[in-house]
Amino acid sequence: GAVVSQHPSWVICKSGTSVKIECRSLDFQATTMFWYRQFPKQSLMLMATSNEGSKATYEQGVEKDKFLINHASLTLSTLTVTSAHPEDSSFYICSATRGGRETQYFGPGTRLLVL
Amino acid sequence: QQQVKQSPQSLIVQKGGISIINCAYENTAFDYFPWYQQFPGKGPALLIAIRPDVSEKKEGRFTISFNKSAKQFSLHIMDSQPGDSATYFCAASNTQAGGTSYGKLTFGQGTILTVHP
Question: How far apart are CA A106 and CA A103, in angstroms?
Fold first, then answer.
């Protein structure tokens, strides 16, 4: 159990467009979901934490108007990269926890390339 | 104080050897220490985790050693196999933290492990 999926797995878009990435917990209810970005050969950088039905909490330096996060249900969170630019190209990964437990289960990641 | 320092940055071992990756932390409030394995182009997968009430935890070929007084913990991979070649991340969190810190993981910088056949 504890499977997290992401869609799409990779996306290429033009500069200035918006891209939505979905994160789903397939076999459990995720009370909290986290969004990370990872540049090549680097560690994971936490972007924001979202709890179902409430506003996301963004890490320092992350633009909340650029990276819109919605956690509308206990199994789905979305990250929308608005007006994407080439510097937004990265590997975006979500994770989820269930019922107050500490373990984070990660999705397979979404590779975003902005041309 | 939130940092987790991981070493080495990269590690090469021969098949059958022991791989050892070390992490050190500063925040004494951390009470949960997981290790994640990540293959290229994939998300991290939980390998093994430990809480500070035990000094060692073993699952198959993977062992975490934990030294609370030194604020250090390490991952040992016994009988390393080419299939273990991946990036390994240690992490830490304060499971008692409330508010915006709840559940947050602080990651180490990662170790690229290469196991030669």
Answer: 10
What are B38's two structure tokens? Answer: 């990540």
Q: How far is CA A4 from its chain centroid?
A: 11
pLDDT in tens, A73-115: 889 999 999 999 999 999 999 999 987 678 899 999 999 999 9
With contacts defined as CB-CB under 8 Å, which chain A residues touch B45?
106
Tokens coding A10:
């990779």
**Strand A30-38 to strand A90-98: parallel, antiparallel, or no bridges (unpaired)?**
antiparallel
Whether the CB-CB separation of B92 and B2 falls below 8 Å is answered with no
What does DSSP say about strands A30-38 and A19-25: parallel, antiparallel, or unpaired?
A: unpaired
Q: What count of CB pairs under 8 Å joins A to B? A: 56
pLDDT at B1 over 70: no
Residue B103's pLDDT band, with cuts at 50, 70 and 90, is confident
Q: Where are the alpha helices (DSSP H) in A1-115?
A: none
Q: Give the integer Cα–Cα distance in Å for B64 and A68.
A: 37
Smallest Cα distance from B26 to chain A, Å: 18
Give how far A28 is from chain B: nearest CA, Å: 17
